[in-house]
């Protein structure tokens, strides 16, 4: 990949993270905005915008680190495990699905119903499946499992800080930019690396 493409990918992903977090904040942190609308305080409102844009850039950086770490791990896995790398990724996908449901439920001491964890894990899995299918359609069918692994397992790992916060605001505020940035990077990569 040319260095100008890496720079373009970096800044465009940064922008996606900033915008998606700002838009998500309107829904997740609506009470924060209401606080500065009545009475209207432009300076505080601007500060809130800057805060969520900067937070989105941080989420974008987490996404980009995860993406480039996965590209390295994938090459390492292909070289070391060869034909076993695909089944290993499938096992890790299943373990992550189990982890997102069972261990999170156990960690909550039963305060949150199990169905909530099942629905969240399934929603993330279905979204990852759709993006992986789109990636396989755009490139080749062998890209499906690596794309699913990246979208599901790597996103879940990147989401850990959001999952550990008290309350659900930052949990939801973090996952939307992560999914947006990860989807964008995955779907644009083959356009940046293809030789003309």
From TrEMBL:
SMART domains reported for this sequence: KbaA
Membrane spanning residue stretches: 7-28, 48-71, 83-102, 114-131, 143-160, 172-192
Coiled coil spans: none
Keyword terms of this UniProt record: Membrane, Transmembrane, Transmembrane helix
Matches recorded under InterPro entries: KinB-signalling_activ
Domain of life: Bacteria
Signal peptide per UniProt: none
Name under which the protein is recorded: KinB signaling pathway activation protein
Annotated organism of origin: Aquibacillus albus
Lineage: Bacteria, Bacillati, Bacillota, Bacilli, Bacillales
């Amino acid at each position: 990949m040319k260095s100008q493409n890496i720079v373009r990918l970096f800044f465009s992903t940064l922008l996606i993270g900033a915008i998606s977090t700002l838009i998500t904040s309107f829904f997740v942190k609506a009470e924060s905005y209401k606080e500065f609308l009545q009475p209207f305080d432009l300076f505080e409102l601007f500060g809130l915008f800057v805060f969520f844009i900067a937070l989105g850039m941080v989420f974008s950086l987490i996404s980009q680190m995860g993406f480039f770490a996965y590209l390295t791990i994938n090459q390492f896995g292909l070289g070391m495990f060869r034909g076993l790398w695909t089944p290993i990724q499938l096992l890790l996908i299943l373990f992550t699905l189990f982890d997102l449901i069972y261990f999170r439920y156990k960690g909550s001491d039963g305060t949150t119903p199990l169905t909530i964890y099942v629905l969240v894990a399934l929603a993330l899995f279905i979204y990852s499946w759709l993006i992986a299918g789109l990636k396989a359609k755009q490139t080749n069918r062998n890209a499906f499992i690596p794309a699913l692994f990246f979208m599901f397992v790597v996103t879940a790992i990147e989401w850990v800080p959001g999952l550990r916060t008290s309350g659900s605001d930052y949990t939801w505020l973090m996952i939307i930019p992560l999914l947006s940035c990860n989807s964008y990077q995955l779907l644009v990569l083959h356009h940046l690396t293809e030789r003309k």
